[in-house]
Structure prediction request, 550 residues.
Amino acid sequence: MRTIFYISDGTALTAEAFGKAMLSMFPVQVVHKTLAFIDTPEKAKEAVNKINQAYDASGERPIIFHTFVSIDIKRIIMSSRGACYDFLDYFIAPISQELGIPAQPKTHRTHGIQESMVDREKYDFRIEAVNYTLDNDDGSNISDYDEADIILLGVSRTGKTPTSLYLALQYGIKAANYPLTEDDDIEHLQLPKVLRPHVRKIYGLTLEPQRLHEIRSKRREGSRYASLAQCRFEVQQVENMYRREGIPFLDSTHFSVEEIAAKILAETNLERHRF
Amino acid sequence: MRTIFYISDGTALTAEAFGKAMLSMFPVQVVHKTLAFIDTPEKAKEAVNKINQAYDASGERPIIFHTFVSIDIKRIIMSSRGACYDFLDYFIAPISQELGIPAQPKTHRTHGIQESMVDREKYDFRIEAVNYTLDNDDGSNISDYDEADIILLGVSRTGKTPTSLYLALQYGIKAANYPLTEDDDIEHLQLPKVLRPHVRKIYGLTLEPQRLHEIRSKRREGSRYASLAQCRFEVQQVENMYRREGIPFLDSTHFSVEEIAAKILAETNLERHRF
Prediction:
């Protein structure tokens, strides 16, 4: 099988994003290897050995997606026998011309904390959002809801917690989440009173009953809680309530946490670029 | 100020990664706007209006980073008056040639859950890691440490929790974390007995005393816990213990959670590409 290398003198997150987006265009099975923080000639030479060994072992030329600030280190990588692709390089000239300023490459500008106070504050903002989200997971701390940017609502196991954490970590959004449970009297489901003052910040999550049944069965096999009938009933009741209350909601069955978060942001106009 | 648009018929995460990496090469202040899920001609025409309005309002030509599967929708975006950059387009031909297969663009392949069972299982794996990490946050559930891929160790407020969550969400790594506290007798600091059987999975986090003091002061201003003297003492004791025990550790002061995670992965050889 062909080996794909993602190599950088930083985190290699950009090289991964670039390479994976490219590969998503092709129906091909590959082995992925990331080599991050390749920031000395010695490490670069080691990387070249790994590339050449992968070539010899498989007989298929490795593909290298790389982003380097140091030209000297980049040259060492490009001396390997892999097929090298560098998207920064290609676009730098036209974007420099458009902006009317020369490029000033600097390591770690994409995923690093910058040295300025502004950047440090923007970063702290994200960590604060993570702390807020953890403190407000699963309906705890309702007194803090004034501070929430969004409150995710849903029955048990519909993806509220991972989505909240992703919104906080990725976007610095203070995302609380509140579970609807048996205590909320699902048979006559109303919006819980504590949520009423915050109704405009609420976003509902739901899931196909069959999928909910599968997920709950992993936790409590054979229980009433996990039964398909119960899952169907809860989903129906909660969707009816969302509609009655005018709460926007999303069926998350076929979406990853990245997609759910992006859809919520697109629909609610929460700001993606706070940091 | 110039407006930068990130536009896609999917989450636009790839367009953002591409655009932000490009812009990181230039010392320039801009306004960022993401338009995700632009998947109909109507939405595309609306996007064109927004681009042209941003041009008229600022007098500076907007820059558009876009990734589209649908060529028809892409053409509408490219009819705007912005400067459009499409990195997928440029690299598709050479990579197709290298792979020896034609491209088969498909929406949502990069950040979506694929339809096959394998992809669903890989995705569930990540969500399981998030659940594991939450259940094992802050020293709870020590009985589960057999299952951990990594156990982050450190004194209070050194970034253990955000780093654990990022490792779980981004990489599907089961990351427990354990806090060293007054109860661990910091004056004669030993590796806590419960951690001894798992010592090879432990990774230490530390922070410059001044920075730790600032962070703790936000929580408990003026307390002994937050005092610079106490922070200095704890950091010194814990770093000595890491060295004595041969535990690898990282001073996270100048790094973002992305960088900390990438450095830990690079150093421990935990697998980045599990899904």
